[in-house]
């Protein structure tokens, strides 16, 4: 769980190496959009990493914005 009021929790892909790197990247992403979220009073319960088969898919949203998946451009996936 996070102390950030705009993004409540972060999830990395289980079973992949370097989970700390993935969580750090997700936190950096959240910090960059925090001013926008604050301005509009948006809150996101879960920001999660995902790696779909389609390389053109960069993100997805589910359950009326309760979960936002972000494709992390991370070399740990290819290790």
Brief summary of the model shown:
With 79 residues, the chain is of the alpha/beta class. 28% of the residues lie in helices and 27% in strands. It contains one helix and four strands.
Keywords summarizing the entry:
alpha/beta; globular; 79 residues
Describe this structure in words.
The protein has a 4-stranded mixed β-sheet, covered by helices on one side. It contains 1 helix and 4 strands. The protein is globular, with a radius of gyration of 13 Å. The protein has one domain (7-77). With 79 residues, the protein is of the alpha/beta class.
Secondary structure layout:
Elements: E1 7-11, H1 19-40, E2 44-50, E3 59-62, E4 67-71
Parallel strand pairs: 1-2, 2-4
Antiparallel strand pairs: 3-4
User: SSE string, helix = H, strand = E?
Assistant: EHEEE
Query: Within the largest sheet, what's the order of strands?
Result: 1-2-4-3
Poorly predicted regions: none
As an assembly, this protein is single chain
Helix coverage percent of residues? 25-40%
Number of helices: 1
Determine Rg (CA atoms, Å): 13 Å
Class derived from helix and strand content: alpha/beta
Strands, count:
4
Mean of the pLDDT scores? Answer: 76
Q: Which term fits the overall shape?
A: globular
Largest sheet: 4 strands, mixed
Through-space gap between termini: 27 Å
Strand content: 25-35%
Number of domains: 1
